[in-house]
Write a structure and sequence with these properties.
The complex is a heterodimer of chains A (165) and B (351).
Chain A lengths: L2 E7 L2 E7 L6 H8 L18 E4 L2 E4 L12 E3 L12 H8 L9 H14 L6 H7 L10 H23 L1
Parallel strand pairs in A: 1-5
Antiparallel strand pairs in A: 1-2, 3-4, 3-5
Helix pairs in contact in A: 2-5
Chain B lengths: L4 E3 L4 H8 L4 E4 L5 H6 L7 E4 L9 E3 L5 E4 L4 H5 L2 H6 L1 H8 L4 H6 L2 H5 L6 H4 L42 H6 L3 E6 L2 E6 L22 E7 L10 E7 L7 E12 L2 E10 L6 E2 L1 H7 L6 H11 L11 H19 L23
Parallel strand pairs in B: 1-3, 2-3
Antiparallel strand pairs in B: 4-5, 5-8, 6-7, 6-8, 9-10, 10-11, 11-12
Classes of the chains: A alpha+beta (165), B alpha+beta (351).
């Protein structure tokens, strides 16, 4: 039996016909939309490489059935830059060497953006490590990741203050 | 993953009818179920998706002072609800000590209650497991079992229930609202999960089609807010299941404990309410001696199920420390590392 669903992905509405309900959101993004920035690491919700924002909240797309998210608004790593201008979190990862091989990086970046939206981390490195614990980095670039997130959070706080001033 | 039919009911009544069929299971966020299905541990024929049902995602204060939490409220939304965290701080701390931020954003209240054990032999389909396949045997009993049960286990099964959320909930006397084929009913959370006995494949009191629609905290649960903590020892500081955990809540009047609540996690197939220990604390001053006596009572019936005798002593110490922290007072802010004995802001005192 075919199932029709529609999603908004990086601002554009996309319609799909699924001939099998087993398709995860991760596989839909990678195989149907060829948005391969979102990575398949463990495929079991343990590594965080597949992190995307769904309706503004970070989740593991490997443990989400696409069919169950009919109507959802999805933001992936491909949707955060403005043209050639990187998102502040992306720029901070480069500035602070927040990666080595880069495989976990899209998930780390999306998780950091989600965390800032949750407003739970602030400028406390211990909180950032706790709130980012769902993203593993096998190269061990954690020190750079924490520095990058602190820096990006600071920049975004400043720009918020400028806007409200 | 085995193929399955997907059903999206429009009402709770339709959902119950669809899920009452053999081989059908409910799908909420799927953070545990999809993992189990990918591993071939769960092999449902039909998924009944309840995530689009109306009216199951609210947090509501009732006229009598109890709190009703819809089954589809996410773990993160509940923990970060300011009124909830103020009124039931140990529950918020337990929620935030579980899983990762991504999983907490997706995982639901009802799903958390019904998550399956993390016993590695249950997960490994090449191993014998009475819970996964009734009557096949238990490879955990003679295997790697240092994290397994020390209370309420049987020769058939030594698995533990992995939930953090359930531990303070059961201590605070939470009630589960269930919609079933015969209509609405409610049971104490303490009666939802079953001990294994000879039938570890039957994990809960739920019947086919039963849907958890809400969890309710009774009016008295709020009275423990000034003295309530959750403490959890894990193999790593974050994103790990409990080796042992404890929820402690006290009502202190005129320097004495008017009422105590205590439950343990990671020790049994259900969140373990330690009623005998609660009785010991009633009417006494909150001293280390009293807490040690309570800890002794809480673990009186404990026995190792394998290489896990250490968990009994660990559980006693966690009980004393959780009670000590609760007596000192709920901190104004949740610690940076929720429920961790290593949290720099926990103000923890070694028991």
């Amino acid at each position: 039996m075919n199932h029709s669903i529609s999603l908004t992905v990086n601002g554009a509405r996309r319609d799909f016909v699924l001939d099998d309900p087993r398709v995860t959101l991760l596989d839909l993004l990678r195989e149907r939309l060829h948005l391969t920035g979102t990575k398949k690491g463990c495929d079991r919700g343990q590594c965080g490489a597949c992190t995307v924002l769904v309706d503004g909240k970070r989740i593991n797309s490997c443990l989400a059935l696409a069919i169950s998210h009919d109507g959802a608004d999805i933001l992936t790593i491909e949707g955060i830059a403005r043209g050639d201008q990187l998102h502040p979190v992306q720029a901070a990862f480069i500035a602070h060497d927040g990666f080595q091989c880069g495989f976990c990086t899209p998930g780390q970046v999306m998780s950091a953006i989600g965390m800032m939206g949750e407003g739970q981390a602030g400028n406390d490195p211990e909180r950032i490590r706790e709130c980012m614990s769902g993203n593993l980095c096998r190269c061990g670039a954690y020190a750079g990741i924490v520095d990058a997130v602190l820096d990006a959070q600071g920049q975004m706080d400043e720009s918020d203050q400028r806007r409200s001033a | 993953m085995k193929p399955f039919d997907y059903v999206r009911p429009a009402t709770v009544t339709e959902a119950v009818a669809a899920a009452a069929q053999p081989g059908a299971v409910y799908l909420a966020a799927g953070t545990n179920l999809l993992d189990l299905m990918k591993g071939g541990v769960s092999r449902p024929d039909r998924l009944v998706d309840v995530t689009h049902l109306d009216g199951l995602d609210g947090i509501e204060r009732l006229a009598d002072g109890s709190l009703r939490i819809g089954a589809l409220v996410s773990n993160a939304d509940l923990a970060h609800d300011a009124d909830f965290a103020r009124s039931y701080p140990a529950v918020a701390e337990a929620l935030l000590s579980g899983a990762s931020a991504q999983l907490r954003n997706a995982a639901t209240v009802g799903g958390n209650l019904l998550q399956r054990t993390r016993c590695a032999y249950f997960y490994d389909t090449a191993s014998r497991c009475n819970k996964r396949e009734a009557g096949s045997g238990c490879d955990a009993r003679g295997g790697e079992n240092r994290t397994h049960a020390v209370l309420g286990w049987s020769e058939s099964c030594i698995a533990t229930h992995p939930s953090d959320f359930c531990v303070p909930l059961v201590a605070l006397g939470a009630v589960v609202e269930i919609e079933g084929r015969a209509g609405r009913r409610e049971i104490a959370l303490d009666e939802l999960h079953r001990l294994p006995g000879d039938t570890p494949e039957r994990e809960s009191a739920l019947e086919p089609g039963d849907l958890i629609v809400a969890v309710r905290l009774p009016p008295a649960a709020r009275e423990f807010a000034p003295h309530a903590r959750y403490l959890k020892v894990r193999e790593r500081t974050s994103y790990a299941f409990a080796v042992v955990s404890a929820a402690a809540a006290l009502r202190i009047e005129n320097g004495r404990i008017a009422e105590a609540r205590l439950a343990l996690g990671g020790v049994a197939a259900k969140p373990w309410r330690a009623s005998a220990a609660e009785d010991v604390l009633k009417g006494v001053a909150p001293t280390t001696d009293a807490f040690q006596e309570a800890a002794w009572r809480a673990l009186t019936d404990a026995k190792p199920s394998g290489d896990n005798a250490f968990k009994i002593e660990l559980a006693r110490r966690i009980v004393v420390r959780a009670l000590t922290l609760a007596a000192a007072g709920t901190p104004a802010r949740l610690p940076a590392l929720p429920a961790s004995p290593f949290a720099s802001t926990s103000g923890a005192i070694h028991a």
